[in-house]
Amino acid sequence: MYIGQRIKRKEDLKFITGSGRYIDDIEYPGTLYLYIVRSQISHARIKKIDVSDALKVNGVVGVITGLTIPFENRPNNWPMAKDEILYVGHPIAAILATDRYVASDAADLVQVEYEELPAVIDPEEALKDKVKAVEGKSNVAYKKEYKAGDPEDALSHSDVVLEEKFEISRVYPSPMEPRGLLSVYQEGNLLVYASTQSAHYMRRYLLSAFGNQVKDIRVIQADVGGAFGAKLFPYAEEFITVYSSVKYKRPVKWIALRSEDFRGMYHGRGQIHKVKFGAKRDGTLTAIIDDLIIDLGAASHGTYLADIAATMLPGPYKVRNLRVNVYGVYTNKTPLDQYRGAGRPEAAFVYERIMDIISDELKLDPIEVRKRNLITQLPYLNPFGLKYDSGNYLHLLEKAEKVYRSYEEKARELRSKGRRVGVGLSLYLEQNNFGPWESASVRIKADGKVQVIIGASPHGQGTETGIAQIVADELGVSVDDVEVIWGDTALIGEGFGTYGSRSLTLAGNAALLASRRLKDKILRLAAQFMKSDVQELEYKDGKVVNPKTGQSMSIKEIASRNMASLGGIWAFKEEPGLEATAYFGFDNLTYPYGAHVTLAEVDDSRKVKILDYYAIDDIGTVVNPMLAETQVIGGVIQGFGESVLEEIVYDKDGNLLTGNLFDYAIPTAVEAFNIKWEYLEEGKSDAPLPAKGIGEGATIGTPPALIRALEKAIGKRLTRLPSKLEDLI
Ligand code: MCN
Ligand code: MO
């Protein structure tokens, strides 16, 4: 059995030997390089754009301005600002040149005449709807009320009623590779190389805009240097690049500079929760009323993140009286969309802060407060209709409690020596496997090697290895003989992609079902080749055996017999070919859960140091504990960044103050720390392979645990992400 084993990643060799192929490594003769001229101010009316000087530059082939394409939840001035500039970084013009440096030099010669408009940057200001972020439009792009039970009544019957404002700042997803696209126009067809989380989504988006101008669009996912949720949905620059290659009938390449990526890549998080909540003296949470303001920036496609946060607000707790008033507001900033965790980290920050605050206010132990509120019967229908499927939350919490108590012990000792240390624990609920289904095809080639094609688009997670383990077990072959490929819309009919921690579960189960289907076909073909009745045969360890006669055939023999001359094949009833496709999806989402415990120190220079860190997850069957563990490690470090280092900051006029990696701090090897991880397999999903996802969990569990530890270290309540230096006095 490979499932459950720490198999080394199959995908790494090419990257560690330098033979990865990212978009910018792919070269086509005759390529034009595209450079985007971006707005330097946050809100203005465009009066005139003069490109005549730019067009005179030797090597410049064309300049595009005023391109607008109607697209769902995007402003009228999309993908380019035609008459109104909405944020710093908004594309205004695109220079196409035979050399990328010529293109960027020519960009300086584009003259934009504009009339500045007042900008609204602060989301609470935006909610007042006085200064408009988009001319002629209300700032309130989205309003929704989620209500369950009777929260007002429950508050009036509570022993304590508390109020708090939690702020979760915007972050930049910071993949190592910025975005980019290469669009190749060939005889009426488009071949698009993308740094994306889903080749199929990209094709569908591009077809909606360019489908009537080209015969077909094929999208290939190049190697992707990280995405973290931010490379799933379409971007202005991608549409501008494709438009240009159709217009000039040439390959066009666009690669973002890091500083452009800070302004162009959708920011994540950006939520404010103004919360009123009540509790009984014993720590029972009675009700939550939450005004949730999501800072959408200049487009409204990020509203679903508030919906996820709102419906997940009860977390793993029994509270049934809630009201969440969601306000999605436009601001003159880069549009907002998903970042690893997507709505669940925001919810967890709020419900875990609430648990800790209740324990402080009522002088109760934080674990006891959690236990008092914990859901103990699963499946459970949460007050907003989400069905938590499986698991034993209490068991996991009890395991985490042991770690917590031992960290407390250490903390007491260190505190007695005058050190500012604290311990934090978080319990969190994850929700994953979004998207209707995923596809997989499994083939056996003539040499007996197995090829798996999946509709998901992994980009660093290690899914190739995980899925190879599943298929190798099912077919009884060596994991080294299983190759997993993906990321090309010409490879498999339809698919979705890699997001919402779904790939192992959905594509993995599709691959499992396809392997089972393929085994039936192998048996039928073998029956013919072995001149046996199919009922007499058994599939075992990559072989078909006839227990009665002792006769057997390996998959390799069957696969090569399958290739025999036409007569040899058509003489049989079964058609040739060893290939099967299957699809897998859930009726309900799955709900993994976990707990994080940390011992942290704030030193005299207010620097945060993690002295110990422990995470426990229950994701049902773990296919490869090493892959899952590395996802947790990466996620904890990202969560650390979000908790103490990373923040997108704009000044009051909408200038981005943290627009490069000098001003925007992400954790590096220097800040990294040791993380211990353990897993339970009690909460199985109802899939044939009863797994759930792990790709995002750690970004949900880390901030509330860490902020609690810091709060205990300094003895002052912390309510925002990240905690800033001035908070840590
Ligand atoms: N796994 C496992 N057993 C399970 C579940 C998962 O062994 N029960 C393994 C899988 O084989 C895979 C990894 O854990 O190697 C993650 O699988 P899964 O939870 O299915 O998540 P996805 O593959 O769908 O990845 C998406 C997830 C998301 S949504 C974001 S955002 C994120 C993340 O993955 N972005 C990442 N981790 C990232 N890691 C890297 N390196 N780069 C990103 O951009
Ligand atoms: Mo994601």
From TrEMBL:
The keyword Oxidoreductase applies. One of its GO terms (molecular function) is iron ion binding. Keywords: Molybdenum, Oxidoreductase. Residues 17-118 form the Aldehyde oxidase/xanthine dehydrogenase a/b hammerhead domain. It is an enzyme of class 1 (oxidoreductase). The keyword Protease does not apply. NCBIfam families: glyceraldDH_alpha. This is Glyceraldehyde dehydrogenase subunit alpha. The lineage of its organism: Archaea, Thermoproteota, Thermoprotei, Sulfolobales, Sulfolobaceae. The gene is cutA.
